[in-house]
Amino acid sequence: MPELPEVEIASRQLRSWLEGRRIVSARAERSRVIRGQTQARFGGLVGRRLEGIERFGKWMLLSFDGGEGLISHLGMTGKWVRRRAQEPRPSHVRASLTLEDGHAVDYRDMRLFGRLIRGKASELRASEALRALGPDPLEGIDVDRLHAALSRTRRSMKEALMDQRTLAGLGNIQVSESLHRAGIDPQRPAQTMTWQETERLADSIGASLRSTLADEDSPEPITYVEEGGENVFLVYDRHRTYRPGRSKHVLLSIVPAALAGAPRATSPWARRGPQAWAAFACPARPHFGRAAVRAGSLSGVLRVGTARACLPSLPSVPTLPVCRSSRSV
Questions:
Q1: Which of 87, 140, 225, 296 could cysteine-pair with 238, CB 3.0–4.6 Å?
Q2: pLDDT in tens, 94-108
Q3: Where are the domains of the chain?
Q4: Three-class secondary structure of residue 52 per DSSP
Q5: Residue 90 C-alpha from the chain's centroid
Q6: Per-residue pLDDT at 62 exceeds 90
Q7: Which of 91, 109, 129 is nearest to 31 (CA)?
């Protein structure tokens, strides 16, 4: 899923592709990407030239001459790609901008969770969606503000950091990477953080963002990990042993799926491949049975009632400490 680094790279690419070039054709398909708007409203970009792009967390605001604007949110699978106008459009294109230089810029979105919102740039900049966002961590993190925000919530660190009002642009990947770098349990109550730990976390967030930008930055659109792209992350989508702190019921080990047995072929998860999942057992709570968890993910332990139906009888696995089987870790 695109998060702050991917959206920052997309904004740089769009700026280089569009800035100063006149749009000769603007077309949007009827889809939920432009929900609440007409296709003709999107077509009103014809004749406009891009003047600038601002990024707000995971949102981009494209400003055109005449005060016109376009908000872009990539959702889960969205991306902007460029081609020569005479070339066929790729699959899953939901909107296209054809430029006077003979190129076309397409918005692709297989799962349709992204958004394209047309309007006056000044009104879009003042929209509730953008005003509700917290500070952008790429510009530096105010440790005092972050610590105050964490101390006011009883949520876990993972939940608190994924709240876009805390810091804009962080998602599952960057939160997991940052907490790993800082050595902080994702389940830990946010209000128990000390100022010194918050300072260490802020440094880790900045380091994770800069590392991802350095590894992924390219003039070509990013191929996401889920699409088969290179995994540049430390913990995301990797087999790892995770040792959280003092939680009463925690998962301390993840068994590779190759050792635990693969899901049934009829399982909806089987299509992801046997190596994409791992299994664990909770000896302290045997009625939970065995459960599945995305390999290497520190969030998304599946409810056992669902997992039991998708896993066959598993071979014996190493004895593990008790686990939290229906909450994120």
A1: 296
A2: 999 999 999 999 999
A3: 4-131, 137-227, 238-329
A4: strand
A5: 23
A6: yes
A7: 109
pTM over 0.90: no
Which burial class, exposed, middle or buried, applies to 91 when counting CB atoms under 10 A from its CB (0-12, 13-18, 19+)?
Answer: exposed
Q: Which among 274, 246, 252 has a CA at the least distance from the CA of 319?
A: 252
Q: Token pair for residue 313?
A: 């009888």
User: Helix (H, G, I), strand (E, B), or coil: what is residue 242?
Assistant: coil
Please determine, for residue 70, whether its predicted confidence score (pLDDT) is greater than 70. Answer: yes
Q: What is the pLDDT of residues 210-268, one digit of tens each?
A: 999 999 988 888 888 878 888 899 998 775 444 444 333 333 333 333 323 333 333 33
- CATH fold label, 137-227: Helicase, Ruva Protein; domain 3 (1.10.8)
Dihedral sign for Cα 93, 95, 98, 104, please: negative
Contact (CB, 8 A) for 174 and 216? no
DSSP H or E stretch at residue 171: none
Q: Do the beta carbons of residue 98 and residue 78 sit within 8 Å?
A: no
Paired residues of 290 in beta bridges: 281
pLDDT at position 273, please? 38
Q: What is the CATH number of domain 4-131?
A: 3.20.190.10
Sheet holding 255-256, edge to edge: 255-256, 277-281, 290-294
Element of type H or E holding 306: helix 304-310
Helix (H, G, I), strand (E, B) or coil at 265: coil
The torsion angles phi and psi of 103, rounded to 5 degrees, stand at -105, 160
Label residue 179 by pLDDT band (50, 70, 90): very high
Residue the block writes with tokens 């959206």: 7
